[in-house]
Amino acid sequence: MKKIAFQVDTRLAKLLSENYRSSEKAIKELVDNAWDADSESVSVLLPKPMTDAPIVVHDNGAGMTEQEILREYLCIASDRRKRRGESTPSKKRKVKGKKGIGKFSGLLSANVLNLETWARGKKCQFSISTAALDSSEDIEKLPIDLEITDCDERLHGTRISLSSLHQNLTFPNPDKFRQLLLQEYGREVDFEIIVNEKTLGVDDIQGTYTTHEENIPNVGNVKLDFTISSQKGSLRNREFQFV
Question: Which terminus of the chain has fewer Cβ atoms in its 10 Å neighbourhood, N or C?
């Protein structure tokens, strides 16, 4: 009996990236990855439309070792929850990544994805381009050059740069992106999100923003920041983050 096997066309990566209905939702997948990596902070830089600047998502999470890149990150459609459980290792957060395709989300907006990650005294780096995907018939045979160098043991985290952006697509809008993130992370107390050098906060909620200071006996000066909003939808989770 002859053994046969499926072949995975490299076009699959493009089809997976097109699963996202907007560039904002595609970039949010990379923020979700930072959450799953137990990051305390993630910074997102969004370029102005029609410029050559890249989209950059940089978190201070656990990072990935060479083995984790090979066995997990490059394993398409692998469900992290089945490998590691429903919660993250350190902060016991509920894992958001489910389908194992978020890694391709950046290719919705860009031709080149460059990943740098620091973990356990090693820096790993590689790039994926849509040109390479187009020129290779089988994604399992797609050549990827993984560069590994020594780094400070204290360094950890992951930085993804998306360059050569598709000029015919709608660039991610910072305001829309913040609203999307607020719905998911607006009440989280241990996850700082910085978009274009501004920390996501209550003043990003659509509505009338007000700040009030009061001196309370036996307590001292108290400052309250709040927004009165009529927008539909509510922030997830129970405890409100912004004070």
Answer: N
Say how many Å lie between the first and final Cα of the chain, rounded. Answer: 68
Exposure pattern of 147-158 as b/e (b: 16+ CB <10 Å)?
eeeebeeeebbb
Residues 6 or more apart from 43 whose CB is under 8 A from it?
56, 57, 58, 59, 194, 197
Task: Tell me the C-alpha distance between 72 and 33, whole Å.
Answer: 13
- For residue 31, the 8-state DSSP code is H
Per residue in 131-186, pLDDT tens?
888 888 777 778 889 999 999 999 999 999 999 988 777 788 999 999 999 999 98
For residue 67, what are the β-bridge partners? none
Domains of the chain in sequence order = 11-199 (3.30.565.10)
State both tokens at 160. Answer: 């993804």
Indicate the helix (H) or strand (E) that contains 136: none
Residue type, 28: K
Phi, psi dihedrals of residue 31, rounded to the nearest 5°: -70, -40
**137 vs 157: CA distance, rounded Å:** 32
pTM of the model: 0.79
